[in-house]
Amino acid sequence: SQTIHQWPATLVQPVGSPLSLECTVEGTSNPNLYWYRQAAGRGLQLLFYSIGIDQISSEVPQNLSASRPQDRQFILSSKKLLLSDSGFYLCAGTGGRYTEAFFGQGTRLTVV
Amino acid sequence: GDSVTQMEGPVTLSEEAFLTINCTYTATGYPSLFWYVQYPGEGLQLLLKATKADDKGSNKGFEATYRKETTSFHLEKGSVQVSDSAVYFCALKGGSYIPTFGRGTSLIVHP
């Protein structure tokens, strides 16, 4: 079955510090990959998606960037965190165009 | 573009009550439809799915039927438990690379 490993589970970072969140995929090759952010009590905001290595599309202009150096690795980064970057970050994947999404366990980021 | 609309929450029920969470969608073509569940502090988990009209998805006592004529995929359960308390997301995936999610409905079940 398809699995996403996402780490760390929680992270507290000072304003202005860099960020790197990573997820890796098992159980499928050439997945479409996604980074979402979820504010408390709110829905999912799509940040980035990728259909292949080094192919990244940004949905929301912001302080974050994403990279996909390998087929099953997706990284979310920031050079300088803002307070507004706090939230719950979810990595997700799909195996094909009509198939379900599978999610990692999420990272709770608090910028202080 | 594609969209999913689900009822606002929270939905508050007593244990053993009947649950309905409404979901309607707009999409081109014939998407697959899904319900996901999210427990506090966790990622989303697939609860059930349906891939064509009149299909019924079911899992753990939850059911939803793909109604093409009303563009709906309502989630139902005959008798909820306290452990069903979570946020439920309706979603669709069609020919686009990007799945479309509703805003989520919080379910609170009291003993």
What topology does this entry show?
The complex is a heterodimer of chains A (112) and B (111).
Chain A lengths: L2 E5 L2 E4 L5 E8 L5 E7 L5 E9 L2 E4 L6 E6 L2 E6 L8 E8 L6 E3 L3 E5 L1
Parallel strand pairs in A: 2-11
Antiparallel strand pairs in A: 1-3, 3-8, 4-5, 4-9, 5-6, 7-8, 9-10, 9-11
Chain B lengths: L2 E4 L4 E4 L4 E3 L1 E4 L5 E7 L5 E7 L5 E4 L2 E4 L9 E3 L8 E8 L6 E2 L3 E6 L1
Parallel strand pairs in B: 2-12
Antiparallel strand pairs in B: 1-4, 3-9, 5-6, 5-10, 7-8, 8-9, 10-11, 10-12
Question: Would you summarize the structure shown here?
Answer:
Chain A is mostly beta strands and 112 residues long. Chain A is built from no helices and eleven strands. In chain B, strands 2, 5, 6, 10, 11 and 12 form a six-stranded mixed β-sheet that branches. In chain B, strands 3-9-8-7 form a four-stranded antiparallel β-sheet, with no helix packed on it.
Please explain how this structure is put together.
- The complex is a heterodimer of chains A (112) and B (111).
- Chain A is built from no helices and 11 strands.
- Chain A is mainly beta and 112 residues long.
- In chain A, strands 2, 4, 5, 6, 9, 10 and 11 form a 7-stranded mixed β-sheet that branches. Chain A has a 4-stranded antiparallel β-sheet with strand order 1-3-8-7, with no helix packed on it.
- In chain B, the strands form 3 sheets. In chain B, strands 2, 5, 6, 10, 11 and 12 form a 6-stranded mixed β-sheet that branches.
- Chain B is globular, with a radius of gyration of 13 Å.
- In chain B, strand 10 (86-93) and strand 11 form a beta hairpin.
- Chain B is built from no helices and 12 strands.
- Chain B has strands at residues 3-6, 11-14, 19-21, 23-26, 32-38, 44-50, 56-59, 62-65, 75-77, 86-93, 100-101, 105-110.
- Chain B has 111 residues and is mainly beta.
End-to-end gap of chain A: 38 Å
Low-confidence stretches of chain A: none
The largest inter-chain interface, given as chain pair and residues per side, is: A-B, 25 and 26 residues
Which structural class fits the helix and strand makeup of chain B? mainly beta
Give the topology string of chain A: H per helix, E per strand.
EEEEEEEEEEE
Q: What is the 3D form of chain A?
A: globular
Beta percentage of chain B is: over 45%
Radius of gyration of chain B: 13 Å
Q: How many strand elements of chain B?
A: 12
Characterize the largest beta sheet of chain A: strand count, sense, and whether it forms a barrel.
7 strands, mixed
Order of SSEs of chain B? EEEEEEEEEEEE
Per DSSP E runs of 2 or more residues, the count of β-strands of chain A stands at 11
Counted by DSSP, the helix tally of chain B is: 0
- Mean pLDDT of chain A, to the nearest integer, reads 93
Oligomer: heterodimer
Percent in strands of chain A: over 45%
The shape of chain B is: globular
Main sheet: strands, sense, barrel of chain B: 6 strands, mixed
Low-pLDDT regions of chain B: none
